[in-house]
Every structure is written in structure tokens, then in C-alpha cells.
Amino acid sequence: QKDVKKEGVMGRNCLIVLKDSQQRERLRQLVLDVKKDCVLWETDNLKDAYQILLENSIDVFFIDVVLDHEKKGDISGIRLARIIREMSCYIFTPIIFIGTLEDPEKILYKAYHKN
Description:
By secondary structure, the chain is of the alpha/beta class. It has helices spanning 21-34, 46-55, 76-86, 104-112, and strands at residues 5-7, 13-17, 39-43, 60-64, 95-98.
């Protein structure tokens, strides 16, 4: 199932990449409560997220760390963030991670900090 939606008319462009549709809805409402004129993109998968970020100028990303809950050890959201950071147009774009991991700080630190 592909679940991609665009909402809004003008303003800050946000991309929400969350597997759970109820969580996406709650986050969508929260974002629109804060910024009513936000252009909001939503999807539940990497393929559509990648297509959206290529075709649009995104100002902030909300990404679920785990997009495939059936796959043990999945961190596909972190892989998406790596792809985003490799694109010069998104090198400083805020990425907000959503989700629960045993030690998310350690995983994110290792993913984005070079020794």
C-alpha cells in the first residue's frame, strides 16, 4: 500500500515518513497546529519519500527510524537520513527522528559522527 498525501498551500515544506498511519495523522495535526500554511507531504515508505524529496524543496524532515517493523534490526529511516545528508541541497535541513530504539542516541551518534 502506498500512502502519499500532500496538504497545504504555501509555507514551510515538511516531509513526514512514518509507517504507522495513526502516528502520521497525529504528527500531521501537530505540525498544522503550529504552522497552518505548511505544505505537508506524508508517506509510509522509502521509495515515495525519495521521490518526494527529489521533486520538491523540503524544509524539515520527520522520519521514523524503523519503517519495516517486520524486519529485525531495521533502521531504514536512518538510511534515508544518510541519503538526505549526501544531497548538497539538504546538508543543513533539519531531520527529526521519530520512534523508539533501545539506545537511539548511540545509533544516531555512530551514524552521523566521524571519529
